[in-house]
Amino acid sequence: MAATTSISRWHLREAVRAVDAGGIIAYPTEAVYGLGCDPLDRPAVLRLLRLKQRPVSKGLILIAASLEQLRPYLGPLTPAVSRRIRATWPGPVTWVVPARPETPWWLRGAHAGIAVRVTAHPLAAALCTAAGRALVSTSANVASRPPARTALRVRLAFGDEIDCIVHGPTGGQGRPTEIRSATGGMVLRAG
């Protein structure tokens, strides 16, 4: 992976402060820059969706530094499904898993499941660790436009609408992460 963990504690604190204040942050992920916020902050999530011009019905991805950060959103998993998922994490595979009934609709969209990933990207994982929780992660682009792969492209796409940009290299993947169905193992989006 091309990325490094060369982010200062100050920059991490600034990003976490922005999330805690209901802000939207941009940060590098495995392939592209992502936009994120606190998944339980409804106004922040809805603002993020408006910026992207993305319908809430599509749902969102949550990234985390560990499976423990995702547990509040996950419904029961069979041992076989749990093993299948753990075999790919941390890594660039997003899984759509059954969501707990109390998982907010603004995260699930029109779906019964939720898309989740334990990221292997060191800066994204450091952000989740510093925030002490999973974060929303959706590509940094307006719907139907190419995702940003640099901090400059994020700024050009969104101007000052982003509250904090974490600068750093993406993980070098050519395409956004693969998305698989946890219950059937089907590939929903090729990586």
Textual characterization of the structure:
The chain is of the alpha/beta class and 191 residues long. It has a single domain, classed as DHBP synthase (Alpha-Beta Complex). It contains 7 helices and 9 strands. Strands 7-1-2-6-3-5-4-8-9 form a 9-stranded mixed beta sheet. Strand 1 (25-28) and strand 2 (33-36) form a beta hairpin. The longest helix has 12 residues, at 9-20. The mean pLDDT is 93.
Q: Nutshell version of this structure?
A:
This protein has one domain: DHBP synthase.
Question: SSE layout and pairings?
Answer:
Elements: H1 9-20, E1 25-28, E2 33-36, H2 42-52, E3 61-64, H3 67-70, H4 79-86, E4 93-98, H5 105-108, E5 113-118, H6 122-131, E6 135-139, H7 151-158, E7 164-165, E8 178-181, E9 187-189
Parallel strand pairs: 1-7, 3-5, 4-8
Antiparallel strand pairs: 1-2, 2-6, 3-6, 4-5, 8-9
Helix pairs in contact: 1-6
Provide the descriptors you would attach to this structure in a database record.
191 residues, alpha/beta, 30% helix
Instruction: Name the CATH superfamily assignment.
Output: DHBP synthase
What is the CATH architecture descriptor? Alpha-Beta Complex
Which structural class fits the helix and strand makeup?
A: alpha/beta
In terms of DSSP E residues, the strand content is: 15-25%
Strand order of the largest sheet: 7-1-2-6-3-5-4-8-9
Give the uncertain stretches in residue-range form.
none
Mean pLDDT: 93
**Extended strand count:** 9
| CATH top level label | Alpha Beta
